[in-house]
Design brief:
mainly alpha
Length: 263
């Protein structure tokens, strides 16, 4: 028993060292821009850069629209599958896993081929069309995480009973989803939303190939031309990602436990 605990601690320490030592080295390097002294000059330059502000704002707006699109698609679909079409759940789960298997570069090249300026639907011929395609692409990349978060939330509530009670009171399907189901799975939806936000902020392939002024291409551009600023940007991006993960952990504490009832 003591031997098992010893090796468990060894594995934990090795894993923590593997994770934290490169992170600490990156932090230390990002503070060495001023020769002979540690400073936050690299962070000040990055945060004061107009391109950083514009690209980060662009990605935040794209993330918001991606979250809205994901919620509008996933919540009704997951609800209807759990309520009326449970036999389709394995097929839908397989479909939602496809973005993890199909590389983003394949998806974006499909967009370029189908919606280029010479195609019958030239969405890429305008900024608005390209932005819309980027949001749709981001929603596709985030689909596995959003769907599983919402599906997990639906498992914790009695979907059939809530639906029947709402119908008895005269509620339509839109009211049932918007005012009955969504509030009950809001914690799960927010968890999926934070995962989506983290994905969108750091995504490079789609934004670069669609020539959008997003944060991911900015990170790559700075990394190819600067020394200390990329380290500072890496720490900032890391903080954003782990901030989202921490919010998910906090929200999960308020999520209702599974009712273990058949729906």
């Amino acid at each position: 028993m003591k031997s098992g605990k010893f090796w468990a601690w060894v594995v934990f320490i090795v894993g923590a060292a593997y994770f934290f030592i490169p992170l600490m080295a990156t932090v230390e390097f990002s503070l060495r821009m001023r020769r002979g002294v540690h400073s936050f000059d690299a962070y000040q330059i990055v945060l004061g850069d107009a391109r950083f502000q514009s690209t980060f704002l662009y990605s935040v707006v794209a993330a918001i629209f991606t979250i809205i699109l994901g919620v509008l698609i996933v919540v009704p679909a997951a609800y209807w599958i759990r309520l009326r079409l449970p036999q389709l759940r394995p097929i839908v789960e397989f479909i939602t896993l496809l973005p993890l298997v199909i590389p983003a570069i394949v998806i974006v090249f499909g967009y370029i081929r189908m919606y280029g300026s010479n195609s019958p639907l030239p969405f890429l011929g305008s900024n608005m069309g390209a932005n819309a395609l980027l949001v749709i692409g981001y929603a596709t990349l985030a689909l596995p995480y959003m769907y599983r978060a919402v599906d997990t939330g639906l498992r914790t509530i009695d979907v059939r009973t809530l639906t029947e009670a709402a119908q008895i009171l005269g509620a339509g399907w839109g009211t049932i989803i918007g005012r009955v189901i969504l509030p009950n799975v809001l914690i799960a939806v927010l968890s999926g939303a934070f995962l989506t936000f983290a994905i969108v902020i750091g995504e490079f392939t789609m934004a670069s190939l669609l020539n959008r002024p997003a944060f991911g291409p900015y990170l790559q551009n700075i990394g190819a031309n600067r020394a200390y600023e990329p380290a500072a940007l890496a720490i900032i991006a890391f903080a954003i990602t782990w901030g989202c993960m921490s919010l998910i952990q906090i929200l999960s504490r308020f999520a209702p436990k599974s009712s273990n009832r058949p729906n």
